[in-house]
Specification:
This is DUF2190 domain-containing protein. This protein is mainly β. It is built from no helices and twelve strands.
Length: 128
C-alpha cells in the first residue's frame, strides 16, 4: 500500500475545546483530544506546539473549530534546573511558559525531549 500523502513543515491543526480562547504563541495541549491552554491541561495531556494565531471558540461546541499549531522545536524559559546534561531527557511544564527537568511526582505535563539548552532558555521537541 502506498502512502496517502506526505507532509513537509511543522504546522498542524487540532480540534479546539469549546468556549475557549487560545492566544497566538501560547503553548497548546491536547486534553481528551481537544486543544486547550496550559491552565486546562492535566498531567496526561499532550503538548503539541504553539498556536500560530489567536483562536476564539467562544460559544462553540467542542471540536467545532480547529486551531493551527506549529510543532517545530520550541524554546521556553528554564526554571533553572535544566542543564546541558539534560539534552535527550524529557522536560516538563512548571508553568505556562517555563520548563523544568522535574515532573513533580508526575503532576506536570511533559513538554517533550530537550534538544538544546541556552543561557536564556530550553529548546524542546514536542511529543507529536
Amino acid at each position: 500500500m502506498n502512502c496517502i500523502a506526505k507532509r513537509f513543515g511543522s504546522k498542524r491543526a487540532y480540534p479546539q475545546k469549546g468556549n475557549t480562547q487560545l492566544l497566538s504563541g501560547v503553548a497548546v495541549f491536547l486534553a481528551a483530544g481537544l486543544a486547550v491552554a496550559h491552565s486546562a491541561a492535566a498531567a496526561n495531556s499532550l503538548f503539541v506546539g504553539v498556536a500560530t494565531e489567536f483562536s476564539d471558540a467562544t460559544g462553540l461546541a467542542d471540536g467545532a473549530m480547529k486551531v493551527e499549531v506549529d510543532s517545530a522545536e520550541i524554546k521556553f524559559a528554564n526554571v533553572g534546573d535544566i542543564t546541558p546534561s539534560h539534552v535527550g531527557s524529557t522536560a516538563y511544564f512548571a508553568s505556562a511558559n517555563k520548563l523544568s527537568s522535574n515532573s513533580s511526582t508526575n503532576t506536570r505535563v511533559p513538554a517533550g525531549v530537550i534538544t538544546q539548552v541556552d543561557d536564556d532558555g530550553v529548546w524542546v521537541k514536542p511529543g507529536v
